[in-house]
Amino acid sequence: MNAAGSVQAGLLTILLAVAVALLAAGYGRGVHELWARRGAGEVLPGWRVVAFGGGVLVVLAADSGPLAGLAQRSFAGHMTQHMVLLLVAGPLLAAGAAGLPLSLACPVRLRRRLARLRSARGTRWLRRPVNTAVVAGAVQTLVLWVWHLPAPYVAALDRPVVHALEHVCFVAGSWLLWAPILGVTRHRLPGPVAMLLLVATMLPASALGAVLTFAPRPVYPLRALGPEPLADQQLAGLLMWAPMDVAVLVAALTVFLRWLLRLQRQHPDAVGPTEPAGPAAAARTEGVLR
Fold this sequence. Notes:
Layout: H1 3-38, H2 46-62, H3 66-73, H4 75-95, H5 99-105, H6 108-118, H7 121-126, H8 129-147, H9 150-158, H10 160-182, H11 191-214, H12 229-266, H13 279-289
Organism: Micromonospora avicenniae
Region (Disordered): 269-290
InterPro entries: Caa3_assmbl_CtaG-rel (IPR019108)
């Protein structure tokens, strides 16, 4: 990267930090107002606030410091950066349930416009569980595949603005995917729908990781890879493949178990207690057989 590119990258880093700081400040203001109105932890538990703060810190750490330096030296380092944004930052931000706090932080006029937007026909259609799952899965898959095609990936390496847009797409796509799974209960997808969403999203990511891992030759230009191009590409494929599969499978299993426990609480008598065998039970059985 030349001197002009380095200056541009530095300016973008500052702008990113300012944007993230404004996002965190708006969330904090909304949380303060929400807790002042309804009591701390009643609507938005403290652990969600901590999760959102952790997501903000992860975004800043991924775009600066050692991880950013590692991303500049190899494709595997860049893939590590991408997985941190997709599998750590996005879920943490989604768990923060930022919709209500951020809307409360907006001016009254903008807040009214957001309320009208939520009641619009298109928004109501999008908020249906199945529609939400289809849109979220499609956006996540599209973002993952498009930005890992050779031309967009090289463009992100050469142009800091494109690189920043790439990371915004990763965080936004992951946030959208995990919001109906980790968000507040009333906006969560039903257990079976959430499981199908996670598995359907995992399969294209696994396919992309497999392509990078088993490709007989480098898919990307050599200048975009490390000192050992093929080995660097294979390691990057494994870094996409294994963590994505493990994280999604663990999340899907957790959603499934949570769904079963909810069904058990809602229908405790669906499976009645087993009656112990004894003389009375044997007599009734004998009577039925007769």
